[in-house]
Design brief:
By secondary structure, the chain is α+β, with helices and mostly antiparallel strands. 39% of the residues lie in helices and 21% in strands. It is built from 9 helices and 10 strands. It has helices spanning 5-13, 51-54, 57-73, 128-142, 152-169, 183-190, 192-208, 233-250, 277-293, and strands at 19-23, 28-32, 77-84, 100-109, 119-126, 173-180, 215-220, 223-229, 263-269, 299-301. The strands form 2 sheets. A 5-stranded antiparallel beta sheet has the order 2-1-5-4-3, with helices on both faces. Strands 7-8-6-9-10 form a 5-stranded mixed beta sheet, sandwiched between helices. Helix 6 packs across helix 7. It is elongated and about 85 Å long.
């Protein structure tokens, strides 16, 4: 079958995904396809520009790095990345999708140079819908359905990573395990729906007291855990006490009954003598049960020399 030049031009123009010819210095030599504004912005205005002319420095550096990886290895190089129309100077943002778009980039070296430079063909496919679905599946696999907190598996995975960091770089990290006092009695007296409301409320109250880098997880039943990166044991004790006071102050009581909601907490941190994360888990768990045995609604910290328990009101 004979292809005329006009037919080849039409085929290239109507490619469903945008195709960029990019040189090793980051110059847009040509842009084809990707004309559907539901999925892409019109990138034809980029021809002749360089990555560093139209993108923020960090993003331009990243794109140039990917080009050079493909050229250096002389093979197809596949990446995923997010970009918004506002990230790229010169695009018409009235036409095209709004918000962040996720792309799969397929980068292939060209055998012939363009204007004396090595070059690649970069095909960008919109995978935003797939990315959102995968992100939602990850969220569901990592969180507790009732409280929205992270689940036990996610916490243990993160705890393992932090322990490796501690072993290699001596970065401190601490763990708090907390338990709802007399939770069985709440379920028996008011029913499991009320018990669920208490757990949800405690999760919300605790999360408001934590930093963005902290991880709050449902550890099982009425037990929760908090991973505190870059936090030593004295810092963990202060955080645990803040959580205890917040729950005592803010968690709604079941119905209108005269029922006091409180939590007991055990805390510990990584020690140089620890052989694995099981050691810190065991210490925090032992501290929790010591808090429950010695009166509940209190904080106990292990090692024992850190002392224990109710401290003066931090809001005073």
């Amino acid at each position: 079958m004979f292809f005329t030049l006009e037919l080849l031009q039409e085929l290239v123009t109507n490619l469903p995904d945008p195709v960029f010819l990019l040189t090793e210095t980051g110059r847009y030599a040509a842009v084809f396809g990707g004309a559907d504004p539901r999925f892409y912005h019109d990138g034809s205005s980029l021809v002749g520009c360089r990555l560093h002319d139209v993108l923020p420095l960090e993003k331009a550096d990243w794109f140039l790095e990917q080009i050079n990886i493909s050229l250096g290895e002389q093979r197809l190089h596949t990446v995923e990345y997010g970009l918004t129309g506002l990230d790229v100077d010169g695009l018409d943002n009235e036409q095209g999708p709004s918000g962040e778009i996720w792309f799969e980039g397929r980068i292939q070296p060209l055998s012939a140079p363009i204007d004396g430079e090595r070059a690649v063909v970069w095909v960008a496919r919109n995978i935003t819908e797939r990315y959102a679905m995968e992100a939602e599946l990850r969220r569901l696999s990592e969180t507790d359905a009732l409280t929205g907190a992270y689940n036990r598996r996610k916490l243990l995975n993160e705890l393992d990573e932090r322990f490796r960091e501690f072993q290699r770089y001596k970065k401190p990290a601490s763990l708090i395990i907390l338990d709802v006092d007399h939770f069985k009695s709440i379920n028996d007296r008011f029913g499991h729906l009320v018990g669920d409301e208490v757990l949800l409320n405690i999760s919300q109250v605790c999360n408001r007291q934590l930093r963005e880098v902290d991880m709050f997880a449902r550890f099982g039943g009425e037990e929760f855990a908090v991973l505190l990166p870059n936090t030593d044991v004295p810092g963990a004790k202060l955080t645990a006490e803040r959580l205890r006071q917040a729950v005592e102050r803010e968690v709604v009581r079941p119905s209108e009954a005269d029922w006091h909601i409180s939590i007991s907490l055990g805390a510990s941190g990584f020690l140089p003598t620890d052989k694995g994360l099981e050691d810190v888990l065991k210490r925090a768990d032992e501290a929790l049960y010591k808090a429950k045995r010695t009166g509940r609604n209190r904080v106990v910290v292990e090692p024992f020399f850190m002392g224990a328990t109710k401290t003066p009101n931090l809001d005073a």
